[in-house]
Design a protein that fits this description.
The chain has two domains: 103 residues, Rossmann fold (3-Layer(aba) Sandwich), CATH 3.40.50.2300; 49 residues. Strands 2-1-3-4-5 form a five-stranded parallel β-sheet, with helices on both faces. It has six helices and five strands, in the order E-H-E-H-E-H-E-H-E-H-H. By secondary structure, it is α/β, with parallel strands linked by helices. The longest helix is centred in the last third of the chain and has 60 residues. Helix 1 links the parallel strand 1 and strand 2.
Amino acid sequence: MQALKILVVDDDPVTRTLLAKRLSKEEYQVDTAQSGVDAVRSIADNYYDVVLTDLMMPGGVDGIGVLETAKEHNLKTEVMLITAHGSIDNAIIAMKKGAYDYLQKPINFDELILRLAKIQNLKHLMKNASDLRLAMETTEQVSSETIQNLEMTVAALEERISNIRTILQRAGVSAEERISMALVG
């Protein structure tokens, strides 16, 4: 399975660096953004499997803004919010807007890694389902073309048999001539 590409968004440099190092250690591809504004730029220029963003950030674009931008650019991007205990209600509002999940500070890294593994498994299952759907569509198309070709071949053979039958039933022509005409014809 290919490693998830993750954007970590947090205005706190310690949290951002800690998350990036820990996720990189788990072999995820990690980019960082120090603000919601930077995150919006990164999301516009790159595809991310997961955006892990602080809910409360200064600068005009908070975690909800990052969530909305991520979902506008690609519905397949999963957004996980990091929230302080007092803003759980906001995290629930974000879940209603399409966030995958939220984590409370201080972050439990085992829990984070488990949730990322679930996202990775879900994305893998969705890719497999998409591949199967494509294979089924291709098989259906090839089958349809094969059936159409067989129907045309059968129609041509039926016409040829009808012509041979007509030739063989001709009156006034010797049997040898009728057979000769049927074989040619």
